[in-house]
Structures are given as C-alpha cells and as structure tokens.
Design a protein that fits this description.
Number of domains of chain A: 2
Largest sheet of chain A: 5 strands, mixed
Mean pLDDT of chain A: 94
CATH topology of the largest domain in chain A: Rossmann fold
Number of strands of chain A: 13
CATH class of the largest domain in chain A: Alpha Beta
Strand content of chain A: 15-25%
Largest interface: A-B, 82 and 82 residues
Low-confidence stretches of chain A: none
Structural class of chain A: alpha/beta
Helix content of chain A: 25-40%
Oligomer: homodimer
Distance between the termini of chain A: 38 Å
Strand order of the largest sheet of chain A: 3-2-1-4-5
CATH architecture of the largest domain in chain A: 3-Layer(aba) Sandwich
Amino acid sequence: MKKTASKSAFYAQSGGVSAVINASACGVIETALRSKRIDKVYAGRDGIIGALTEDLIDCGRESAATIRGLRHTPAGAFGSARFKLKGLDQNRAEYERLIEVFRAHNIGYFFYNGGNDSMDTAHKVSQIGESLGYPMTCVGVPKTVDNDLPHTDCCPGFGSVAKYVAVSTREASMDVASMARTSTKVFVMEVMGRHAGWIAAAAGLAGRGADETPHVILFPEVPFERQRFLERVRQCVTDFGYCVIVVSEGAAYADGKFLADAGTRDAFGHTQLGGVGPVVANMVREAHGYKYHWAVADYLQRSARHIASKVDAEQAYAVGRAAVELAVKGVNAVMPTIVRKSSKPYRWVIGHIPLAEVANKEKKLPADYIREDGFGITAACRRYLEPLIAGEAYPPYRNGLPDYVRIKGVAVRRKLKTDFKI
Amino acid sequence: MKKTASKSAFYAQSGGVSAVINASACGVIETALRSKRIDKVYAGRDGIIGALTEDLIDCGRESAATIRGLRHTPAGAFGSARFKLKGLDQNRAEYERLIEVFRAHNIGYFFYNGGNDSMDTAHKVSQIGESLGYPMTCVGVPKTVDNDLPHTDCCPGFGSVAKYVAVSTREASMDVASMARTSTKVFVMEVMGRHAGWIAAAAGLAGRGADETPHVILFPEVPFERQRFLERVRQCVTDFGYCVIVVSEGAAYADGKFLADAGTRDAFGHTQLGGVGPVVANMVREAHGYKYHWAVADYLQRSARHIASKVDAEQAYAVGRAAVELAVKGVNAVMPTIVRKSSKPYRWVIGHIPLAEVANKEKKLPADYIREDGFGITAACRRYLEPLIAGEAYPPYRNGLPDYVRIKGVAVRRKLKTDFKI
C-alpha cells in the first residue's frame, strides 16, 4: 500500500525528439510506478504545455506492455514542445502556474527530459517552488541528438543519430563508388548539428582515413574556405574516382555566415530557404562540373529507431531510471550523467551533476577531435565515438514495419477552475 | 573435373545499384562456380565496360566467404555502369568487340543484371553472337529499385527501397506528430521514381488510411494541381495538427513539367537544380506560412541494406541462381521472373520470360492502386506491396557498423592486343 503522505510525479518531454527519448520515459515511468515513495505518475501532454494547461496524462492507465514498448519507440510518445519558459523576472506567472498545477495534483517530483534549455527550466522550477512554499524535487533527464550537454560523457539520443549517420554514409558511399566511373562523382549528405559538429563527426566512423569515405566533413567548428574545399574535392575525384562530402547544417564561413544562406532566390524573388546540402553540391558543380547527388536526412536521422545504437538505448533508459532513484533519495536539482570508465572495452556508470552547472551551456567538438586538414576526424575522436554506436537494438516488426507503441493518453481529471493561455 | 568443352560465364551489373543487387551476384556466382557445365566465372569491372575493355574480374579468386558476404552487401561490388549500348546499326563495333572479348576468354554465358535497357542489351548480344558465328547463352537478371519491369510480380531491389521508405515515413511522421503543437507542422519527404510511383506508393504502407500518415502522396501518375494540394495540406493541419507529404521526384503538372523544375535561380542567375522536396515545402510555406521541414533520401534509400526486406533479399538471390540454372539448361535470351502464387500468405515461384518481351518496356502503377483523391494508395495496392517488405535481413555488424564485404577484384590476364576506347 502506498502511503498517503507520498507525492506524485510529473514527467515531460522537451525540445526536439530522438530515437530513444521514449526509452528515458520508460525508465522514469517504470521506476516511478514501482516506487513506494511515489503516488501517481503523470506525463505532460505536449511537454511542459501539459503542465501549464493542466492537461496531464495518467501513466497508470497505460498497460505495462505499452510502457515497456516505449523502450523501442522513437519520437515523443507524450508529445514534446519547443517552449522555453522565460526568465523569472519576465514571466513569473508561468512559474506560478506550474506550481499551482503541481500543488493541485499533489505533484512533488518533476522530471524534465530535454537539453540545455530544459535543464535551466528544471532548475528554475526547483527554485520557485521553494520560494512559493511548495518545495519540489526537480531532476533533469538528459536528451539531445546534438550531444552538446556538458559534464556527461555523451547525451542519450546522440549515439543513435551517430549510428544512423555512420551507417548511411557507409552505404551511400558504396553506392557512389560503384557508379562513379560513368555516373555520379560527388555525393553530398547534409546532417544536423547547427552549433556543434558531433553528428557530422560521426560520419567519419564510416571510413578509417583520409582516403576512405567520407572524404570531406564540413564542421561548424572549422571556418569554410571555398577554394581549399573545392581543391580537396577535385583531388579526391582524381585520386579515388569520386568524393563523398558530409556537411553539418551549421557549416559557416569565417565571418559566421551559414553556407546554407546562399542568397538564392525563387522565381518570385523570395529567399530560397535551402538546405546546405544542395548549396554545397551546386558549388561543386559550378566549379568542376561533376555529376552530383545530394541527400538531406533531416528528421529521418533523429527518428531512426530501426537502426538505434544499443548502448544509446540502454543509456537513455538508465538516465530515466536514475532520475527517479535520485529524486526519491531526496537529491534535488540534479541531472544524471554518463560517466565513462574506459573506452576499450566501453564501461560506463551513472553519475549526477547539479542542474546549475549544466543549464544553458554547450559542449563543442574539441579541437583535437578534428583532423589537421579540417576535413575529418582524429583517432581520439574515433576512440570517443565508436563505443557510442555499438550494438543494435532492433524494434519488433509486424507486417514488415516496426511495431511502435502508441499511448492511450487518458487525461487526468482537472482540478483547477482557471485556464491558462499559452 | 570440369570438361574442357565447357564454356566460361560472364556477369555484369548495370545501371543504378540497389541494396540487393549483390545478392543476385551471389546467386549467379555461387551457382555458376558449382556448375559442372561452367568453366570459369568472370565479372565485368564497372559492368559492361569491363567486357568492352577486357577488364575481367576472376570470381574464382574471391574467397567463398566474400562471395557469401555479397548477399548482405549493398551497392555494386564489381562496379556498375550507366552505359547503354547503342543500336546495332549505330555502333556495331561495340557488339563485335563484346563478342571478340567473349570469344578470347571462351565465355559462352552472359548474365546481365539490370533494368529495361540492360534486358535490351542482353537480347542484342544473343542476336549478334548468333550472326557472328559465336552463339552465346544470354540471360538477364532483373534489378531495379523502380519496380518498372513488366511480366514479373516485382523487381529485386524494389522491396528494400519500399521497406526503407515505409519505415522512414513512419518514423519521421511520429517525430513531426510529437512536435507539431509548437513546432514543425508540415514535413515533406522526397523519394525516387522519375517515371513511376511505385516507391512513393510504398510510403503509403506507413499508415492505414487518409487520416494516417503520409497524409499526401504526390505520384508521377497523378497530374499535380496546386490549389487542390494546398487545400488538402491545410485541411490536414486543421484536422490532425500536422501534415506529412511524400513526393516522388517524378511528380509533374498536367503539361508534363516536373515540379522540381521550379524556375528557381541562384545568386548568379543559374538555374537552381533543386529537389522536388524543397520545392513542395516552399510552396506550402508561401501559401500557408506553416513551419516545415523536408528530407531528400536520395541514395540513402537505395543503398540501405541495413533495413533490407528479407523477401527482397531472397528474391534477388533466387533470380541470380535461376539465371544460371536456366542458362546451363540451354534456355537462351530470357529473364527469370517472380511469379506471385498468393498474397496472404505470400507465395512466389520463379518463372521466366523472353528478353524480347521485357526490353525497353515500363510497368506503371495501375490506376486502381491510387486512391480516388489521388493522394494515397488503395487496399489493392497495399495487398500487392505488403508482402514485398516482409521480414528483416540484417547484415552482420562489427564495431557498430554493418560488416559489408569488399572483393579483391583480381583481374584476369588480358588476351587481346587491342584496346577499346569507351
């Protein structure tokens, strides 16, 4: 029997989703449902918006099979939101509303599954609860495909997008290699990562050296030099018969201008919001006239649960479980982290760090992870990345398609009379 | 002991490669190496170019493990070529050269692995050999991701691209659905298929009806009507909160003009060779202002051996094996076909058809496979497609990446004194 003095828990997904954010949800929910210290387990419909609008999903009404199935289901099963709470000074009402809803539903645990911004929000909620006389235990659950959270070896979500990008680069490269003599000579693949080149770096795992694909990686960290790039492409086509280029959406010139901002106009004179992939491909065509193809993986890369990394899926579950374990022990305002104990073999444990130290900070690709010519990754980078894409964690299939689960999403009866406009 | 009277075999890959064309190569080579009727087994380096330039690969010098590994290796392990032999009247020299090389190496069996064009070439080679007094047994091995070969239930290569597209559509749709409330409302995915909508149709497997994703498929077979399309998109966003669009690269207006030919110009006034994906996305943005994302899978879709269809991989091997079995029985100028015996459960056998009946013909998507509103697939289409993506045929992995094989590619000693310029 649960004690009536126990508090309920609230879980929400935040920001761009990933192939394994639901595995973290599963870790949180399974652990919370089992915990004697936690009464009900709720999730926000569409993330924090569900809390603000008092639209709570009762996780206890989902079957155990559905909750378990979250572990192999991509995207945000409860809905996520790109919704950053403003600073306390600018919009105190939002924070007060959160506390009002949490108080109405006897919620004492707040688990926020997201990136830098979300860790900041979780931190603020823990502060405001205190100051409003409703202390909350707030624990962040790390998630970002960009891998830019500090103080953790890696970030759940990244390993799977890294695996997708490495596998796709290897496969497409083999395609180009087999056709290059009479057809496509240059292939460009655009990947995510607006501020940091972690995802682009993962493409480097597809080949072992500068003579293997991808022949060129364009990182956001390395200022783009048109001539040097074009010369490298020409050299690759001469030496290897073809050239495979992986470009980060954040690739930019030395003055900070994105390559994707190519000044192209459509028939009506509107700015053409192109991807950087076609921009780079056109640049090569104009300079060298090579036949080219380009791909933009976009959401495919971050939702590709079918090729998720086993390590990533396990870490995603583990940080979710750890978040609850920390919370019920009374550890407040922290985020579980992944601590690497060794690379070969890869061994990791769960640690934790105060939210204040994570909030709004970004971890860039270290300089010594980028090859001296700026077009590839170093052995150190490979040592770091390789364990993160290890193992396959295939979902079950049905009629040839992954059998992903869908929640029922039964709403908890509202207790407040007031609405809240987002 | 092989009899000295026996002839050698020549195998070549042709046209765009696929996730399973090497499985056909494996079927041909394993069967030919085992056959008492066949002496040596050669493959053309870079397809038919290898025959014209007398650049033959000795398959007998590859390890059994490498040959076996072709079954799980994408792209063209021997090199493929976009090289169409001209008509006999225009370039008799090319055909005569082929026969010269075949005669020099005692090659009596020609296995040509490709699409419509290649079946035409195989047919011509069998005719010219006859007229030059060097009769050849020529058997086509069907391959095309476009699924547009007639007289066969489906075409090896298609099932895997179909599975990739269906899986990716399902995954990306879940991503968009979970973010739509505060972020991306419209997602556009561009897929291959310049002349026929088979690949686009496969995306329809991701959902079960007009209310499930993809909400809109734009087929080459259905003339594009801008207003009707934009209205459908608006309705989907209103009804479901978001809209997922899959567009075939061959989507066109009633006058035949491709959507991809959008008249866009880059900063220098050059025609912007854009994909149709961004064109459609921009069209939606201009009309409705919705936040959008787009993906162009390009080569990723046809090289994605990691998510190949098991049925497809098996059929690819089976047509390769059958080609050799037919040839050694003396059946000439044919192509093995897949004959569907039943859909539920899916049962198929191998048949064959004269090359003359396949050459240069295209199989379009039947009208009754397209939903009446033109934006989706019918139940009949689903019945046809579903078995083709059934089952997974995962490659082995090593360090987190598929362990694809690479051939040694030992060249056969040349016997002719003459070179041939391509």
